Structure formats: C-alpha cells, structure tokens
C-alpha cells in the first residue's frame, strides 16, 4: 500500500476513537494488503439496535470501505452468562426464548449501516455450544484470577465484599474465544469492553494466533444527557424507530451532547467540531443549539431512513412543536362513555404502560385534552373528536361509540 493511502486510512480509522492498541500493529496489518477480519460482538439484551450501536457499526463500515470483512457476532450464547462489564452486581442471565425474541431483526437493522456483501453474520453458540467441559477447563487455565481482578468492576466488588461468580469470569473468556474461532485481526466495541478485548489478545496468543488489534469507541450519551445510551435505562434512540419519532427524540436532546453526536454519528469536518466545542464552552456564543439539533436530526433520519423521510419529519416537527398545530395523521380511540376517569382513559388508549405512569403524567401537567390541561383524577367529559395529548409526542383522537 502506498504511504499516502496508508496515512489516509489510518487518519480516518482513528477519527473519534477512544482506544487503539497497539496502533503500530494496525498499521502493519494494513500494510500487508490483505482483507482483515474485523470483529464486532452484539449483545441481544434488548429488541432494538440504537444510535449507540451505530457508533461502532459506522466504524466497522469504514473498515469495509477499505476492503476488509466485517464479522458481526450475535452473542446468543454469552448472553446466557451475562456480561459483568461496568456492573456492581451479578447480572441475571436471560432465557433462550428472550434472546431469540430480541435477536429478531438485528441483522436487518445492522444492514442499515453495513455492506451485506462484506459482512459475515455468526452466532457464538456455533462454537461455544460445542465446547466440552474439558474444553472449558483448558480455556480457563489460560488466564489467571489475579488478572481478572485487575478489572475495575471486579476489583470494586471484591473490595466491598460483594459476590462475584465464577460464571462472570467465564464471560470475558468466552468472548475471547469468539476471537479465536473467527480469527479476528481487529476487534471493535465500546470503551467499556476494553478489558475484555485485552483478554482476547492474550487468549489468541495462547492458541497460537496473532493477537487482534483493539479499537474502542466512546459510549454515546443517551437522551437523558447523563448516562451511556441503553435500552434498559430507556434513554435510547432506536435505529428502527419511525422517522418522526427519531427526529423528535433528537430535537429533545440536551444541548451539551450535540458535539459528541456530530462527532460520532456524522461526517462533520474536524474544524467544525472544534468550533462547536468552543461555542458550547462559551454558552453557545455564535451558534444556535436549536439549529444544530435540527441539522443533526435531518442528517441522522436521512442516514437511517431517507432524505425524503427526514424532510417530512422536519416539516411535522415544525408544525406540531413550533407552530403548535396537530400532526397530519392522528390515531383514533373509541370510547363508550361520555365521562371517563383520565387514568382509565390513558391506560385503555395505550398511551401509558401503567396506572402509576398515568397518575404521574397527570400530576406533572403532561396531559392535555383539546389544548386544556387535565387536572385531577375525577371523571372528565369527552366530546366526539376531542384530541388527547400525552407528553410532547403522543396524540390520539377520541371518538364516541355510536349507539345502536
């Protein structure tokens, strides 16, 4: 490979990266000129991939564009164990039925970013499910308890006298064996996986393989503006969400996360990213964060749906949230009585998941009927065609049942 092309590829692959170890080994692998096998594991803990997954999937796509092979591993077997990364307690395992439900649609969602022609899809039960107990013992013999306890989460729990099961020690070993099974040259993932990836290097060497290069990405901050995006926390934006829902969630993001989202989810030039960071530090002097969010929402919706869908979502957002008009399309819900409890109405219309959530929304002033706040829990009169609004983005038109 020509030196200039090598430097171009290295610069692009290093963009936005949290950890690249060892950098010189990646350079050497690229110089060899052969297609590299670049591994990404996905934990089937929830039914959707999110923008957090998109950060590493986009990096994987960059490798594909340079002629390399993406090896996507769905961790159906390892999820039976449960990844202890970043946790202060034992993570409960999932059943095979739960895992299968969550895995449905993963590949289709991943192909919103990846090139199917350069992607291998594997489930790690293909090889981990075939290991005998003797094989597991031999694998466990290749790493020490002392090294395991160097992990921050394990070290903290050990110090505090909290339980650490032997099963949790097996998780990073099983993940490392994935790298052996598919002969990974590079492993991608979030920064919280760095320790596991280092174990992967050690286990590959123990099996006589050239160790993988480690490339980790920062964890994308979720919609709460505080913690890493996660479906279990509810602070996520799903890749399969409808364009209008995706657009609205992005517009609701806290201002301070804008630079990270632009850096990790778009191709915004470095100098422009630096200007955003500077504007944020100066209280957004010279830049309007609302305009930035509108641009970000357009770019992300166009990326995962289409430019046309992004334009329609923006038009709908402006109409509903800036001009305070109703959405073009409203779902309907038929009610049988003239007066109904607001809690019952919210639950029966499917606008909340529980009666307690309904009560909380009403108490917080998050429910409107024809533009008027719903106050209190007493039954309210409903006229035919009234519009019920819950929160910022949930609407339903109420239709009175026709008398026979």
Descriptive key words:
404 residues, Tyrosyl-Transfer RNA Synthetase, 13% strand, Structural Genomics Hypothetical 15.5 Kd Protein In mrcA-pckA Intergenic Region, Chain A, six-stranded mixed sheet, 13 strands, five-stranded mixed sheet, 3 domains, Rossmann fold, alpha/beta
Which SSEs are present, and which pair or pack?
Blueprint: H1 3-14, E1 19-21, H2 23-31, E2 37-42, H3 51-65, E3 69-74, H4 78-81, H5 96-103, H6 106-110, E4 119-123, H7 125-128, H8 133-140, H9 145-148, H10 152-160, H11 166-182, E5 186-190, H12 194-206, E6 213-217, H13 243-251, H14 258-265, H15 270-281, H16 289-304, H17 307-322, E7 332-335, E8 339-340, H18 342-348, H19 355-363, E9 367-369, E10 372-373, E11 380-381, E12 387-390, E13 394-400
Parallel strand pairs: 2-3, 2-5, 3-4, 5-6, 7-13
Antiparallel strand pairs: 1-6, 8-11, 9-10, 9-12, 12-13
């Amino acid at each position: 490979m020509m030196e200039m092309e090598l430097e171009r590829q290295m610069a692009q692959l290093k963009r936005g990266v949290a950890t690249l170890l060892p950098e010189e080994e990646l350079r050497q692998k690229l110089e060899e000129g052969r297609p590299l096998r670049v591994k990404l594991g996905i934990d089937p803990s929830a039914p959707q991939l999110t923008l957090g997954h998109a950060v590493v999937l986009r990096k994987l796509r960059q490798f594909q564009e340079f002629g390399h092979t993406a090896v996507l591993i769905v961790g159906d077997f390892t999820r039976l164990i449960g990844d202890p990364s970043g946790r202060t307690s034992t993570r409960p395992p999932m059943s095979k039925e739960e895992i299968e439900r969550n895995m449905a649609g993963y590949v289709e969602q991943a192909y919103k970013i990846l090139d199917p022609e350069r992607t291998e899809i594997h489930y790690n039960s293909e090889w981990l499910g075939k290991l005998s107990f003797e094989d597991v013992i031999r694998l466990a013999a290749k790493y020490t308890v002392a090294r395991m306890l160097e992990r921050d989460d394990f070290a903290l729990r050990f110090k505090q006298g909290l339980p650490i099961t032997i099963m949790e020690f097996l998780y990073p070993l099983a993940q490392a064996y994935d790298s052996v099974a598919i002969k990974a040259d590079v492993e991608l993932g979030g920064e919280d996986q760095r320790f596991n990836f280092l174990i992967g290097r050690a286990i590959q060497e123990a099996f006589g393989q050239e160790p993988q290069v480690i490339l980790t990405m920062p964890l994308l901050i979720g919609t709460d503006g505080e913690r890493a995006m996660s479906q279990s926390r509810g602070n996520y934006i799903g890749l399969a969400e409808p364009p209008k829902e995706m657009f609205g969630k992005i517009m609701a993001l806290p201002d301070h996360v804008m630079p990270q989202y632009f850096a990790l989810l778009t191709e915004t030039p470095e100098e422009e990213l630096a200007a955003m960071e500077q504007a944020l530090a100066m209280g957004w002097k010279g830049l309007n964060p609302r305009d930035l969010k509108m641009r970000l929402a357009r770019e992300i919706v166009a990326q995962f749906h289409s430019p046309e869908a992004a334009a329609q979502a923006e038009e709908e957002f402006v109409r509903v949230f800036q001009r305070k008009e109703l959405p073009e399309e409203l779902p309907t819900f038929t009610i049988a009585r003239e007066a109904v409890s607001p809690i019952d109405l919210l639950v029966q219309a499917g606008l909340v998941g529980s009666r307690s959530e309904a009560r909380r929304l009403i108490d917080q002033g998050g429910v409107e009927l024809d533009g008027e706040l719903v106050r209190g829990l007493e039954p309210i009169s409903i006229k035919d065609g009234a519009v019920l609004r819950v929160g910022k983005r949930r609407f339903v038109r109420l239709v009175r049942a026709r008398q026979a």
